[in-house]
Amino acid sequence: MKKLFTTLLLMLGLSTPALAAGDSPVDVISNTSQNALDLLKKENGKNTAQVRKQVEDMVVPLFDFTRMTALAVGKDWRAATPAQQNQLAEQFQTLLVRTYSSTMTRFKSAQIDVKPNAQINNNGREAVVKSEVTLPGSGDKKNVMVDYTLYKGAQGWKIFNVSVEGASLVTIYRNQFGEEIRKNGVDGLIKLLKDKNQPGKPA
Amino acid sequence: MKQPLILVACCALTACASSSGHPQDPLEPMNRVVFSFNDKADQYVLKPVAEGYRTITPQPVRTAVGNVFDNLRDVYSLANHALQLEGKKTATDVLRVSINSTFGLFGLIDLATPMGLPSYKATLGDTFAHYGWKQSSYLVIPLLGPSTVRDGTGMGLSFGYSSGSWVFQENRDAVAATILYGVGAREKLLGLDDTFSEAALDRYSYMRDGYLQYRNAKVGFTPPASQQNPDDDNIDDLVPEYMPATEPAAAVPQQPDASAPLAAAPAP
């Protein structure tokens, strides 16, 4: 499936989001957002599910969900066993992908301006890439600032935090996770996330 | 409009403080009650009305209505930028209002934005923050939703004194305009409410934390890390650089840091 998808993309003349070590964090973000927008523009009301799947397949590998989950959980992360950490990351990934996948078609007509200067921290291992999203025709004229935090690991730059207008889509969960861990432990949180991710279950 | 807000603000400043929980939300018990009330009001009144508004009006009409209110908010913003002595932003607001009120047919068309005059809406809450009131407790206002004591006070003062009287001669017209403004604002959020419910484990705390992060970033307030999460800030402490592979199926074992679950690299 993956191979087929890759071939398909190459046939369409789209480059896949490069994971090559030479890519700068700004490249990663700007190439991916451009490719994602190109895919979204093909959405015509009938192929929504297919387009969503394609965008997901392209975007998901660029995130490090383990690191993201650690950031969301905070200091309780240390108290979790590796097995629990895996389960948490898996469930959190499902939750995030499901949530944001359903909204992505709203951004079909968006224009994304990725700022060329990334803010580099932590001896060059961490970068914050800033971007500005415009949604023409939505009646909302204000541009939205979206910031991506990436770190450089063995597989190149990976995103582990996204902020919209200063609000992090990751640390927004910290109090909710902390509360559940305080009440029912790490397993309680895993269960809560699993229940939430159960298909067909009302939110 | 004025009295309930001041009442809320007084209550916010004095009573109903609780000790545990979010450091910027001492009013959580009261806020949760108002949040539930707003939720019900939204479910039974605001959302259906906004949906009806969307059904009966075409997008260009809604955009025009939104533009008119936006133009009025630019006037309010102008006053606040002036109070903050923000010369450039004040000038931008003056130009925006002048152009949109004349060539833009009383604000129906927003010509200023495409002309390169961006809108930076400032409120009295921003002005308070500008002069030092940066940290402020979370406050859920009936029907209006998330705010802070500072922003709510600013809103109460502005609307209490003017209540649109500089635009509308009749109080009744001002009320009608306020309702139309609210309906228009709610209409823009249709569809996002489902996402919100899907994303949140606890909808109250999800909205609060998102709002406070957004608002704090806007006014330049950094909550002291020691207040709540003394050692959370360094992610590298939580996820060591050389951690073992966590996803055996996808990760390459000999590589350190192979923690991205689906990172099977596609062919170059």
Structural commentary:
- The complex is a heterodimer of chains A (203) and B (268).
- Chain A is α+β, with helices and mostly antiparallel strands and 203 residues long.
- Chain A has helices at 2-11, 25-41, 48-59, 65-73, 82-101, 174-197, and strands at 111-114, 119-121, 126-134, 144-153, 156-164, 167-168.
- Chain A contains six helices and six strands; from the N terminus they run αααααββββββα.
- In chain A, a hairpin with a 4-residue loop joins strand 2 and strand 3.
- In chain A, helix 4 crosses helix 5 (82-101) and helix 5 crosses helix 6 (174-197).
- Chain A is globular.
- Chain A starts with a helix and ends in a 6-residue tail after the last helix.
- The model of chain A is unreliable at 12-21 (pLDDT under 50).
- Chain B is an all-alpha fold and 268 residues long.
- Chain B has a two-stranded antiparallel sheet with strand order 1-2.
- In chain B, a hairpin with a 3-residue loop joins strand 1 and strand 2 (145-148).
- Mean pLDDT of chain B is 75; it is low at 10-19, 226-232 and 242-268.
- At the A-B interface, helix 1, helix 4, helix 5, strand 5 and strand 6 of A face helix 3, helix 8, helix 9 and helix 11 of B.
Summarize the helices and strands and which ones pair or pack.
The complex is a heterodimer of chains A (203) and B (268).
Chain A: H1 2-11, H2 25-41, H3 48-59, H4 65-73, H5 82-101, E1 111-114, E2 119-121, E3 126-134, E4 144-153, E5 156-164, E6 167-168, H6 174-197
Antiparallel strand pairs in A: 1-3, 2-3, 3-4, 4-5, 5-6
Chain B: H1 2-13, H2 28-56, H3 59-83, H4 87-102, H5 124-130, E1 138-141, E2 145-148, H6 149-162, H7 171-188, H8 192-199, H9 203-219, H10 225-228, H11 235-238
